[in-house]
Batch of 2 targets.
Target 1
Amino acid sequence: MSKSTCTVTINGKKIKANVGDTLIDAGLGGRLVLPHDCCSGQCETCRVRVLGGNVDGQGTEEKNTVLGCLALLEGDAEISYDPVPIVKNTKGTVESIRAIKEDYLEVRIRTVRPVTWLPGQYLRATFSGYPARDYSPTTPLNLDAEQDVIVFHIKVYPNSIVSSQLGSNIAKGHSVKLRGPFGNGFLRRQPEPLVLTSTGTGFAPIWSIAVAAVLGQPGRDVRLIVGSRTRDGLYMRDAVRWLQSRDIPITLTASDGDDDTVLSARPYEVLGDLTPDHVIYSAGAPSHVEATRDVARQAGATFYADPFYVAEQSGGLKLLANSLLRKAKTPFAPAPAG
């Protein structure tokens, strides 16, 4: 008969827990908070490494990792997770809103104090008078970053609750509350070749990762695959030029691509030959993320995900105003609201 209690070691700390506890609940029982957000298996903030022991991953296994909100203890186990910035609440105001392409905005938030985040993480933003939305902070396309300014890329949908108000009812000086950071799809210091993929404004976290890798991890093999529903959605031309000037390979895809400068294939179809040594980051449409995940699994590559969900389906989970529907049949199907 299996014992009803067990010991789980989390980042070297031994904690008594109950067999059947989720890893997050086990940690909380020992006053140790694993990074988490949605607790429903979608945001992937709580993904942890299983170093040994008895853990039922509940179908969330990814190499030697599982999701802490769903994985269950079956006995003694040891797990670990990467240190991340502490989740904090920070106030700010809208500094500027400018169009970077038709229906695509760059929104800058000046905060009362610096917000610490890792490239690839996301923040929960609440514009005063509007429901909370989750956005990935990013590096400005022209690289003019400021310490106390958070930059978001947001796609505008005419009938959306939040994005349609940007530039009108939400304008310069509008109060904003930020909470975070969250997310597991952040850049690690690893020597292996790096492949970054995105659709829509999933490019925001991917761009921040790319800049950090190129500038902070010189010599690392980095390449990008950036997709959009149509060529009009490829708003990141300044970023493309910056990457190309540093000989970083970048492939652009869109459903109406000309197969010259922009391919008509889907991003996951042009990943190329992958090996277990590759590290892949994917952000954007859930369908794109899942298709990329499947390719990564087949190759045995390390995979980090940042899927975007719409508010109505995710109950406040990872949402950018450019989010794509999980039920989309292709990686290019847009969400109706933001």
Target 2
Amino acid sequence: MSSGLYERPKIRVVGDRGLLVEYGDTIDPVVNKKVLSMAIGLEHDAPAGMIEIIPSYRSLLIVYDPSVTTTAFLQESLSSLEKRLLEIEIPPPQTVEIPVCYAGEFGPDIEFVAEHNGLTADEVIRLHSEPEYQIFMIGFSPGFPYLGGLPKELHTPRLKTPRTQVLVGSVGIANEQTGIYPVTSPGGWQLIGRTPLKLFDLERSNPFLYQAGDRIKFKPISPEEYRRLAEKGIN
């Protein structure tokens, strides 16, 4: 087990009702595991005055009510929880398969990603769809998964000028990360494909298909399969 699990966190006050707790300065599965463990511990045994917990790759943002608690009390609660960290059980991750139609109209930037890395478009598809990606955090827009584990051969910089509109379901690459746009929104990631799967749907009992800590496996599909699944309205 990495010693990073036991490093002292950096704690910063954010505004008049936020406490940012940083457990590392890199994208690291061990650091992210600690973030998830602390988030679960705080949810199960919430300190008085805590309103919300927002986990990220390497940190937790604790939103609190300053009329009920103080940053000193919250830090004491965090220290107490850290002593019990190894007792906290993280639920086993589920693996969610995401069908993706790569290239063409669905992935307008795949040729750039290929050229940037000295690959063919088919090699980009193979490399991108081989791993199981860990969801390190969810943010930016409802259900946007930031995924760790993108092969180094696919690392590609963001667009110099972001698009004003990225279609729902688009799969993109930005530097060492890959992710999926669950709703239509602006965005600056290199788009290599699109999924017909509804990642975020308010009509479901659980609007999200996954949570932080789960894994995603991409499955290449044809344009015909994409359209068939889109017409079927899979979710």
